[in-house]
Amino acid sequence: MPRATSRPPSPPSPSPSSPPPRRSSRSLPLPGWLSHPAVPPLAVLGAGLAGGVHLWHTDPHQGGQLLPRCPFNWATGLLCPACGGTRMAYDLMHGDFAAAFHDNAALLLLGMPLGAYLGGRWLYEGVRGRRWKPRIGTAGTAVVLGLAVLWTVVRNLTG
After folding, report:
1. Is residue 88 a contact partner of residue 96, using CB atoms and an 8 Å limit?
2. pLDDT averaged over consecutive 10-residue blocks of the chain (159 residues)?
3. pLDDT of residue 5
4. CA pair distance 122, 49, nearest whole angstrom
5. Which H, E and C letters describe the chain, residue by residue?
6. Crossing angle for the helix pair 39-56 and 85-93, to the nearest 10 degrees
7. Smallest Cα–Cα separation from 90: which of 78, 74, 102?
8. Is 32 left (phi over 0), alpha (psi -120 to 50) or beta?
9. What is the largest distance, in Å, between two alpha-carbon atoms of the chain?
10. Are 93 and 56 in contact (CB under 8 A)?
């Protein structure tokens, strides 16, 4: 007598009344050309250029200008690691490198090259049709935060 083989039960088919599977918010499709990987870095570049045009005509060394105040400085009276960055950018745009160095030396010497590299790489990869997300890791995060805290302490102690 032949022996009957058992099959594993098949998964139940979804009922017509069950809701469709949830999609991750990260996978929402954008219409047409907005989904191209070059759009975000180009949008950031455009916003930066618009801010630069405004800053070119607005001297942050003069009081009463339409520029945001540092919330950390407003709340504590202390200088944050980026305080002076707006004045530094203004001075760089007007060719005064010594004043830019005085406004925020660490941001000028470390932040600007790092930001230029990251922004340039993001744009380069986007134009080539690839999405790019930098991975800094735990050690890199610790180094960046450590340098920021050190710079904050040094510039607030030295006045």
Report:
1. no
2. 60 59 60 85 96 95 89 94 95 97 95 95 95 93 96 91
3. 59
4. 17
5. CCCCCCCCCCCCCCCCCCCCCCCCHHHCCCCHHHHCCCHHHHHHHHHHHHHHHHHHCCCCCCCCCCCCCCHHHHHHCCCCCCCCHHHHHHHHHCCCHHHHHHHCHHHHHHHHHHHHHHHHHHHHHHHCCCCCCCCCHHHHHHHHHHHHHHHHHHHHHHC
6. 80
7. 102
8. left
9. 100
10. yes
Cut 0.85: pTM above it: no
Of the candidates 129, 88, 91, the residue with the CA atom closest to the CA atom of residue 111: 88
Question: How high is the pLDDT of residue 152?
Answer: 95
Pull the structure tokens for residue 38: 């070059």
pLDDT of residue 32: 75
At 148 the pLDDT is: 95
